[in-house]
Amino acid sequence: MESKSEIGTLILIGTGFIVLLVLIVLFLAVFYQTYVMKMKRKEAELLLKTSLESEKQERKRIAADIHDGVSGDLNAIRNFLSVLYKTETSEEKKALYDDIKTGVEAAIENTRLVSYKLMPPLLETSGFLVALEDYFSRLNSKTTAKFFITTDLNAVDLSNEVSYELFRVIQELTTNMIKYGNISKCEIQILKDGLGYSICIADDGIPFNFKEMYVLSKGTGLKNISSRLKVIDAIFKQNQCVLGNEFVISVKK
User: Fold this and answer.
1) Per residue in 191-227, is it b (16+ CB within 10 Å) or e — as a string?
2) Does the pLDDT of residue 79 top 70, yes or no?
3) Where are the domain boundaries for CATH 3.30.565.10 in the chain?
4) 16, 115, 126, 160: which could join 66 in a potential S-S bond, CB 3.0 to 4.6 Å?
5) Terminal CA-to-CA distance of the chain, rounded, Å?
6) 245 φ, ψ to 5°?
7) pLDDT digits (tens, 9 = 90+) for 171-197
8) pTM
9) Where is the chain membrane-spanning (predicted)?
């Protein structure tokens, strides 16, 4: 018959084994749950990335269709009106042709603007910085607010994917500034550091808290900004200002 000490030892060993087994089960459960959450997060990120890439390609296709199709047809109509104008002897009809031609030219300009908004051509051909300068030049010619870039860089070396998403973020921010911020000026400062680029966007408009507005907003603008920044793994923060707003985007090369 086993002694009490041997029985006590067996009980301790058994208890220890059970505790160890419970800990292993708990560890595996936590590990599995963490793994599942990680996989779901990766799936969500992949889905978001795929969705934004699909949107980009669709924008590109529609922009090309507008530029090559609609603009081409309108240009043909304008040229035909010019021929009619030159051969017409009636001043009344010539005035009518001239009015129609003016309307067609306005439509051509509008289609160019829509095509540009869908997919800025300079973004792929000339790079992020040139495309942004061109975009600001267009804003300055069409709004009372003044937009300008401050940088010592000749170019911003980013992939096409990062450049596109970053451009869309800035486009969304500046659109909100014009619509809601009542700004008179906006400055973008682009700096290069060891890891990538830092882009500071400052305006003198109505102050607002991005995080609070993100939660309260029923629109998609701010959520699109957050989604695009997440896809390119950029860091976004808002600095406190006495006047206006200041946002900083840090993106890796």
Assistant:
1) eeeeebbebbbbbbbeeeebeeeeeeeeeebbebbeb
2) yes
3) 122-252
4) 115
5) 75
6) -135, 150
7) 999 988 998 889 999 999 999 988 899
8) 0.67
9) 12-32
